[in-house]
Design goal:
about 325 residues, alpha+beta, Immunoglobulin-like, 2 domains, 10 strands, about 45% helix, elongated, binds copper (II) ion
């Protein structure tokens, strides 16, 4: 595959070099009406090709899009995406038409004379102010959505969970009954204390270290991120959330899960996607896939980066409480 890529680059370089030498030989040659006619029609043909490709990609590649946001806060990300997508889509659809149609309509002709047109203040004002206002509105909404997922009000009383990254795995720590995480630092890493929790801190005693995230539906969760070695990025695509994990500092985001894993599995969109994936897997003789929420690493952090993931289970509050009660506290595990 790589060899094919190198051959492609070599051919592309060769063609560009050949074209450059051809252009240099054209000095002094002026296009006639017949050339302009042909080029104008090619431009029009290219417009049709461009539209066909655009429509094809919109329909055929739609299957690669994520299902509906599984967090309440993530709905705003989807809104922002849709607004921006359709805005750019409609504007560029119209602009492509204007660019290629006018290239065709005003193609070179011996009898045509150019019109001298200095400027129009009205037009300048329009094409400056409309994009400016649009961008201010979009950025305003974006900032609001950012604050909505980044900060939690004191009255919201979120469940605090620490997510700890290292080459190449994730660990998580629940804050326990006091909902207060004990201090952590790489200097405390020793034996089974793989997250470097300071066990002399009273808040650490009831913390619970786990290798799978369980979240209750409808409750606000505040995630705190740390990294042991290099930059990682905690990416939870179904909840529309991602944050860098930076060695030496604590980063965060918060969201409220909207659907349990089971509810998500039963959504028609997810059922369709699962069917598609399993068709490919079956052809390859692989085990069938079942939908699960995932935490992935979205920073290329080393050789096994691709395999850095953790399962996330969203369930009803009763099931969540039952699962959490079964987990041992750090005081029980680290003697
Ligand atoms: Cu990583």
């Amino acid at each position: 595959m790589l060899a094919l890529f190198y051959i492609f680059i070599a051919v592309a370089l060769g063609v560009s070099f050949w074209q450059i030498t051809r252009v240099m030989n054209l000095r002094g040659v002026i296009a006639n009406d017949k050339d302009n006619n042909t080029q104008g029609k090619i431009a029009l043909g290219f417009l049709v090709f461009l539209y066909a490709m655009m429509i094809y990609c919109l329909i055929a590649l739609n299957v690669l899009m994520l299902p509906e946001s599984a967090s309440i806060e993530g709905e705003h990300d989807d809104n922002l995406f849709s607004i921006t997508f359709w805005l750019i889509g409609v504007v560029q659809f119209a602009m492509q038409f204007l660019i290629f149609y006018f290239s065709y309509k005003y193609r070179g002709n011996k009898n045509n004379k150019a019109l001298f047109y200095a400027d129009s203040h009205k037009l300048e004002l329009l094409w400056t102010s409309i994009p400016a206002v649009t961008i201010v509105i979009l950025i305003g909404y974006g900032l609001w959505a950012w604050n909505n997922i980044m900060y939690v009000g004191d009255d919201e009383n979120p469940i605090v969970i620490e997510v700890y990254s290292q080459q190449f795995r994730w660990d998580a720590r629940y804050a326990g009954s006091d909902n207060e995480l004990g201090l952590g630092n790489v200097n405390y890493i020793k034996g089974i204390n793989t997250m470097g929790v300071d066990m002399s801190d009273i808040n650490s005693q009831d913390d619970k270290q786990v290798t799978e995230l369980h979240l209750p539906k409808g409750k606000k969760i505040l995630f705190k991120f740390r990294s042991q070695d290099v930059l990682h990025s905690a990416y939870m695509p179904h909840f529309r959330a991602q944050m860098n994990c930076v060695p030496g500092m604590v980063t965060q985001f918060a969201f409220t899960p909207k659907f349990t894993t089971e509810e998500m599995r039963n959504q028609s969109e997810v059922i369709e996607k699962t069917k598609g994936i399993n068709k490919i897997r079956q052809a390859k003789g692989e085990d069938p896939y079942v939908f699960d929420y995932l935490l992935l690493c979205n920073k290329i952090c080393g050789a096994s980066h691709y395999n850095m993931q953790m399962k996330i289970v969203v369930e009803d509050e009763a099931d969540y409480k039952k699962w959490l009660a079964e987990q041992k506290t750090l005081a029980q595990v680290i003697k």
